[in-house]
Specification:
Blueprint (H helix, E strand, L loop, with lengths): L2 H17 L6 H8 L3 H7 L3 H26 L3 H18 L1 H9 L7 H26 L7 H22 L3 H25 L7 H8 L11 H13 L7 H13 L6 H10 L7 H10 L4
Helix pairs in contact: 1-2, 1-6, 4-5, 4-7, 5-9, 7-8, 7-11, 8-9, 11-12, 11-14, 12-13
Length: 289
Amino acid sequence: MKDKERLIIESAMKLFARKGYSSTSIQEIANECGIPKGSFYFYFKSKEDLLIKILEQFFSKLKTNTNLIGFKYDDPRERFLQQLSSLLEVILDHKEMFIMQNRENLTKHNEKIDTLLTAMKNYMFGFFSANLKNIYGSRIEKYIADLNIIIQGIYFCFIQFFIFEKKAAAEKEELAGYILHILDDIVEGLLSRQSPPLISAEMLQNLLFQTDVDPKDADCPKVILEQLKEASQQINDNGHLQITIDVLEKEMMSDEPRLPVIKGMLSNLSEYPELSSFQKQLFNYYQIK
């Protein structure tokens, strides 16, 4: 990335955090950078284009960091601990974006922005779901939605506290371990009481993975497939799921898709409740009963 492009991004994020995205003009960004307004358009077509670039960089860094750590640790508890710590560092390095998202709803601005934010939300759901299952096994399957909401709520509330209260680095490093101990207590309590879950996994998945893609749009199956591939990255099943998705993608992208093959591959997704929304959307698109 060029120095001036980085300067524009950093300056814009400070203004977005302080004033809000909607209330910040391109002229103000240029003034903050000390450049002519015309120079802004050399790097970005619009303010929305700038925000998309910021979101893409953040999401890429978040995924890269957590995925790389995932390959380094075999023990699921240690892996989750390190990933939570890394996730915290990424968010703190981009705290202006966190503040901006707390200030206003960004989804109303642009379809691409909405898609990126939805992808981030889906990724986080998959990230926490995969780690919960790896640590506690199938016994917490029915509570996966409740645990996701509870632990993400606690985790991100602490992050918000650290950002706005400017807590010391030493305290930040303790958060991941603290969250994991709280999670142990919550899981133990749920399993000992055996109460029915408040929110089913399917209910939450339908909410999280919903898409505004028009079923009549020629790109509809491609969009759903990309979202499916994104969500599947957090599922560890020794490669069986990846084979299903590879075959499904090849068939969907062919000039003459074979519906029996697509139906068979989509049926394989029934083994993964967290992917049920994508399965239903593609069944509907291809009008498969």
